[in-house]
Amino acid sequence: MRCVGLSSVVTRSPSGSSLLEQNIEEQTIFPWELLTPFQCLILIKVLRRECLIAAVREFVAEKLGPDFLPSPAVNLQDAFDETDAYTPLIFLVSPGTDPVTQVVRFAKESQGHTDHLNMVSLGRGQGPIAEELIHKAQKGKGRWVFLQNCHLAAFFMPALQAIIESFRKPEVHMDPNFRLLLSSKSDYTFPISILHHGVKVAVEPPQGLKNKLLTSFGSSGSGEVTEGIFMKENKGLSWRRLLFSLCFFNAIIQERNKYGALGWNIPYEFTSSDLEVAILNLEMLIHHEAAIPWTALRYLTGEVVYGGRVTDNWDRRCLKSTLDWFYSPEALKEGSSFSTDGVYCMISENMDLLQCINYIESLPDTDSPDIFGMHPNAEKAYLESQAKAFMDTINSIEPHLSAGVQTIREQWSEGEIVLEKAEGLLKKLPQTVEGIYESDDTLMDLTHLLALPSWTKYVAAIQGYDCLANSALLTILRQEIHRFNRLLSVVCSSLRSLCLAVKGQIILTDALEDAYNSFLSMKMPTLWQLHSYESCKPLGPWIADLIERVTFFKTWSKQFVTTAQQRLSSQTSPGSISPGKVPEEFGSATPRAFWISAFFFPQGFLTALLQNHARKHGISVDRVTFEFHVQPPSRQAEDRLSISKHKTQIWMQAFKHRAPPQDGSLVFGIYLDGACWDPDRQILQDSNVGHRYYEMPEIHFLPVQMARQRTSSDLRGAMQVAGNFYECPLYRTSRRTGSLSSTGQSTNFVIAINLPSDLPGNHWVTRGVAMLCQLDD
Question: Are strands 665-668 and 699-705 parallel, antiparallel or unpaired?
Answer without folding.
Answer: antiparallel
